[in-house]
Each structure stands twice: as structure tokens, then as C-alpha cells.
Design a protein that fits this description.
This protein has one domain: Alpha-Beta Complex (Ribosomal Protein L22, Chain A). By secondary structure, it is α+β, with helices and mostly antiparallel strands. Strand 2 and strand 3 form a beta hairpin. Strands 1-3-2 form a three-stranded antiparallel β-sheet. The C terminus is likely disordered. The chain contains five helices and three strands, in the order αβαααββα.
Length: 132
């Protein structure tokens, strides 16, 4: 019986969206993802909108997909969603070669990444904040 209670207590309202094969390296994605963690969804999307990085469009798509999952599958309130976690991982690396002088060749590495966005509802924190 205690195991069932543990499972119920650990069930936090979270929604996940994964975008595989994003054409960028994790070195370029990590600073952008660290910037949006802990923010409300609309503020995170606004920050990505005004970023000059090319890859922010893919991250925006992933957040919008997570919001759609939260709304349609779990009936969460969009205004209370925050970005709980955002991380990326390595995928494949395409290897291409560029011809150089004296018959040599120089490698060109084109890395791919996967972006994972986890949203959660801010319900518990707001109820504590409104009481005080």
C-alpha cells in the first residue's frame, strides 16, 4: 500500500515535448535552453521571438507543441504553465569533406541534436503566493 501512496505523491503535473533531429550542436542550444527554464510559457516564447539565433524557431515549435499537448491531452490551463526543464542531447553527426590544397581533404561535421521541453502547472505555487 505504501508504494501506491508514493507513486500518487510523486505524480506532478508535467507535459513533455521532444523535437528530434534539430540541425544544431548542443553547444549552441544549451545557453538558449538555460535562459528559458523557470519562466512562464508566454514569456519564454516572447524571449525566443526576439532572439537573433537561427535555432530559436525550432525551440519555439517545441514549446508550442508541449503547450498543445498540455491543453488537449491533459486540459491544463495555459496561463499557469511554466518551463520546468529544457535540455538537449546529441544525435547523429553528418560527416562531409571539403577539398583542400595538395590533394588533401578537410572534414566538415554537421551535428544534430534533440531538444526536450518539460512543462508543469504552477497551481501549487500560486495558491501559496495568493494567501500571503
Amino acid at each position: 500500500m505504501s508504494k501506491k501512496n508514493k507513486i500518487d505523491n510523486n505524480k506532478i503535473k508535467t507535459v513533455r515535448s521532444i523535437n528530434n533531429n534539430v540541425r544544431s550542436s548542443i553547444r549552441k542550444l544549451n545557453p538558449i535552453l538555460k535562459n528559458i527554464v523557470g519562466k512562464k510559457v508566454d514569456i519564454a516564447i516572447r524571449d525566443l521571438e526576439f532572439s537573433e539565433k537561427r535555432i530559436t524557431n525550432e525551440i519555439k515549435k517545441t514549446i508550442n507543441s508541449a503547450v498543445a499537448n498540455a491543453e488537449n491531452n491533459f486540459q491544463y490551463d495555459i496561463d499557469k504553465l511554466i518551463v520546468k526543464e529544457a535540455y538537449c542531447g546529441k544525435k547523429i553527426t553528418m560527416k562531409r569533406f571539403r577539398p583542400r590544397a595538395k590533394g588533401r581533404a578537410a572534414p566538415i561535421l554537421k551535428p544534430y541534436s534533440s531538444v526536450t521541453i518539460i512543462l508543469s502547472e504552477l497551481k501549487n505555487m500560486e495558491s501559496h503566493g495568493s494567501k500571503s
